[in-house]
Amino acid sequence: MSAVLSLQPSYYEALKRLTLELAGVRLGDDHTFLVETRLSALSRKEGFENLEDMVEQLFSRGQTRLAVQVVSSLLERATRFYDDRKGFEVLGDVVLPKLHPLCKGGKLRILSYGCSSGQEVYSTAILLDRMKDVFPDMDVEVTGVDYPSLALDRAKEGRFTHFEVQRGLPIRHLIDYFDRVGEDWVVKPSLRNVVKFEDHNLLANASELGTYHVVLFRGRLEQYSAQAALRVMRSLSALVMPCGYLLLGTKESLGNNLFGFDHVEGIENCYRKPAKIMKQEEPVIEKPKSKPLVEYSAPDDQAERKAS
């Protein structure tokens, strides 16, 4: 392992601080190998000679675009088709039967907030297509948003490796919704027509995204710091239209602060926005001392080399 890792320890600490400041996510101490593999691919795409050259330029020149690309790469999740199967069961067995009378004759809008490489989006679109006879006369639109990254680029392309489609995708679904192109599998146009992907900073104001009948935010809540989680939940609350649903990961919950949602009885991770929202008091969080969002400063090792 040590032969593979090339960055100085101070760079890892600087990258962890950058990720916390830009995205509100704390990288663990076991992410050094992930940093190397994810950022090595990004450095090649950006035209750098090696990973260290890219990281040095990031902290010496403070490039905002490069900083976003770096953090986005570090936050990519390893996802699979029909990940969290219980969540898809809740969507099909509980949520869709409730929403169909409201959306019949119109369009059902679903958002995957933090969609990574798109498997959740395509899995949701396949589920809806296979249940179209159960819930007729209803158009669907499934949107995925996440930080701009190589993973999101792959989602937009709808191209997956043979290894990726083997992870969770039933063979019947593979045949019905994908075409073999070379060594990869590409989503068929019939499925692509009901999905779309957009670049979006998950901590930014989400009002431009519109509102949705269902918002999926699964397996990410615990990654965020307390303040970042508060900002994300405020956005999610605004994204779900009245009588709509928020679905978290199977083992996730909102705790005591429901952000205007009602908990769906018997389903820990499912929340419904009431038709009329009662104003809630939000938790008081100590205001941090004023400072720039990101301080682009060279790590200690680099500063010492310049001083010498």
Number of strands: 10
* SSE class: alpha/beta
CATH superfamily of the largest domain: Vaccinia Virus protein VP39
Number of domains: 2
Question: Could you characterize what this model shows?
Answer:
- This protein is α/β, with parallel strands linked by helices and 308 residues long.
- It has 2 domains: 9-75, Chemotaxis Receptor Methyltransferase Cher, domain 1; 85-272, 3-Layer(aba) Sandwich (Rossmann fold), CATH 3.40.50.150.
- It contains 12 helices and 10 strands.
- The strands form 2 sheets. Strands 6-2-1-7-8-10-9 form a 7-stranded mixed beta sheet.
- Helix 6 links the parallel strand 1 and strand 2.
- The longest helix has 19 residues, at 85-103.
Short structural description:
By secondary structure, the protein is of the alpha/beta class. It has helices at 9-23, 32-45, 51-61, 64-74, 85-103, 119-130, 150-157, 162-165, 171-177, 189-192, 226-239, 300-307, and strands at residues 107-113, 139-146, 159-161, 178-181, 184-187, 195-199, 212-217, 240-248, 262-263, 270-272. The chain contains 12 helices and 10 strands.
SSE blueprint:
Blueprint: H1 9-23, H2 32-45, H3 51-61, H4 64-74, H5 85-103, E1 107-113, H6 119-130, E2 139-146, H7 150-157, E3 159-161, H8 162-165, H9 171-177, E4 178-181, E5 184-187, H10 189-192, E6 195-199, E7 212-217, H11 226-239, E8 240-248, E9 262-263, E10 270-272, H12 300-307
Parallel strand pairs: 1-2, 1-7, 2-6, 7-8
Antiparallel strand pairs: 3-5, 4-5, 8-10, 9-10
